[in-house]
Amino acid sequence: MNLLEVRNLRVNYRSYWYTYHVLNDVSLQVSQGDKVGLIGESGSGKTTLLKSILQILPPQGRIVSGEVLWKGTDLLKVSKDYVTNVRRKEVGMIFQDPLGALNPVFKVKEQFLDILRHSHSDHDKSDHLSLAEELLRSVMLPDTARVLESYPFQLSGGMRQRVIIAMALASARDLLLADEPTTNLDVTIQDQILRLIGELVVKRGLSMILVSHALGMVAKMTHRVYVMYAGSIVEEAPTLKLFSEPLHPYTSMLIESAPRLASTRLGEGIKGNPPDYRYPPSGCRFHPRCPYATGICKEVRPPNVEVSKHRYVACHMYSEGAGGG
């Protein structure tokens, strides 16, 4: 049994005038101990997917259909208390913006202890403070007493991010969702934070979904990678295979556009713009930007084809070769 299995998930956002069709039949699996990467351009739906798993979408977001199976139980069909218990004791999430994830009017200590009261209710209250200090030390924060007595604005960006990681670890008994954990950090400490997360995940025996634009770190820290474009999963493969032999045109262009230290030229990026979610294109959502698009790509959504063991790609070039076209 998979630890987490997302099946054919569809999510829309509503505004006053429009409906935005964001997630488009997304499926994803995470087994015990699995380290999964999720990559794609900004706005491709990665954060929406993670928030849908935990059911913390903003009010305008709505899960239209699909399943989110946690240890075999569909979280979309159980009580809010059940889902809350999963969030408190089994799944932790590191958010993109540490300042936005922390309440500015409460000290770190009050916010941390509130989490521990729920996630470690089997501990005595007197143990919670020492546990908070232990978790802060595990993310290499010095002077934990001062950190706990500080308000979020009194800490640097790197320190706030480490606090968020420590809080996520307090809840993550089984799975850690890391959503662009270095987005708001200086380049000098981004690599350090990602390495720290990787070490803590291994040390604690956690499964992980890592969303990151740092493709080099995704390549080092994960076993499998899902590639997301405009709310759809277009490719899934073991990490080494995906980066050495990308199959989907979007994957190839995404990897090619990533900057490289050894390169003498800048990545050119992917020509064109992501689609408008109010009016997503028919067929393959990537076809307006794909240099290999044909008539069928504009009309028929490509099936997700297993091209080799544990390798899947949603592209008509492979569905036709596999007898699906």
Average pLDDT figure: 90
Topology pattern, helix = H, strand = E: EEEHEEHEHHHHHEHEHEEHHHEEH
Our count of domains comes out at 1
CATH class: Alpha Beta
Please give the share of residues in helix: 25-40%
CATH superfamily: P-loop containing nucleotide triphosphate hydrolases
Rg result: 21 Å
H/I helix tally: 13
**Strands across the major sheet, in which order?**
6-7-8-3-9-10-12-11
Largest sheet: 8 strands, mixed
What portion of residues belong to β-strands? 15-25%
Give the helix/strand layout.
Blueprint lengths: L3 E11 L4 E12 L4 E5 L6 H9 L6 E10 L2 E2 L5 H10 L1 E4 L3 H4 L6 H12 L5 H14 L5 H5 L8 H15 L3 E5 L7 H18 L2 E5 L3 H7 L2 E6 L2 E7 H6 L4 H9 L37 H5 L5 E4 L2 E3 L2 H6 L4
Parallel strand pairs: 3-8, 3-9, 6-7, 7-8
Antiparallel strand pairs: 1-2, 1-4, 4-5, 9-10, 10-12, 11-12
Description:
The chain is an alpha/beta fold. The protein has one domain (4-90, 172-321): Rossmann fold (3-Layer(aba) Sandwich), CATH 3.40.50.300. It has 13 helices and 12 strands. It has helices spanning 46-54, 80-89, 98-101, 108-119, 125-138, 144-148, 157-171, 187-204, 215-221, 239-244, 249-257, 295-299, 316-321, and strands spanning 4-14, 19-30, 35-39, 61-70, 73-74, 91-94, 175-179, 207-211, 224-229, 232-238, 305-308, 311-313. The strands form 2 sheets. It has an 8-stranded mixed sheet with strand order 6-7-8-3-9-10-12-11, sandwiched between helices. Strands 2-1-4-5 form a 4-stranded antiparallel sheet, with helices on one face. Helix 4 (108-119) crosses helix 5 (125-138), helix 4 (108-119) runs parallel beside helix 7 and helix 5 crosses helix 7 (157-171). The longest helix is centred in the middle third of the chain and has 18 residues, at 187-204. The radius of gyration is 21 Å and the shape is globular. Mean pLDDT is 90; it is low at 321-325.
